[in-house]
Amino acid sequence: MEKYEDIKTFDELIELEYGKIGTENRNKYEEGAQMFIVSEMLKEARKAANLTQEQLAEKAGTKKSYISKLENAKGNIQLSTLIRIFEQGLNRKIGLTFL
């Protein structure tokens, strides 16, 4: 617990646990965190549309198992596929921000 005594912000905690921005370990953490966010957004949007994973997959031209993997943050996704799932499957637009 001593290593956490001087931690005052979430960013400091993340840096302590995963390293500075740009390091391999931190990059892996950031990638996983972003995938988790996308997976939760997809799951929430699908439920709001009252669709099952199977129905969404059919509308988006993919497989239920792929939707399941994405919703569980277990699969990699191409941007074009993500756009197709949201636009064709959920009738939603995607906005991207690069920092």
TrEMBL record:
CDD domains: HTH_XRE (cd00093). The keyword DNA-binding applies. Keywords: DNA-binding. It holds the Pfam family HTH_3. GO terms for cellular component: cytosol. The keyword DNA-binding applies. Residues 42-85 form the HTH cro/C1-type domain. One of its GO terms (molecular function) is DNA binding. InterPro entries: Cro/C1-type_HTH, Lambda_DNA-bd_dom_sf, TransReg_Diox_bact_type. SMART domains: HTH_XRE. This is Helix-turn-helix domain-containing protein. It comes from Pedobacter puniceum. The lineage of its organism: Bacteria, Pseudomonadati, Bacteroidota, Sphingobacteriia, Sphingobacteriales.
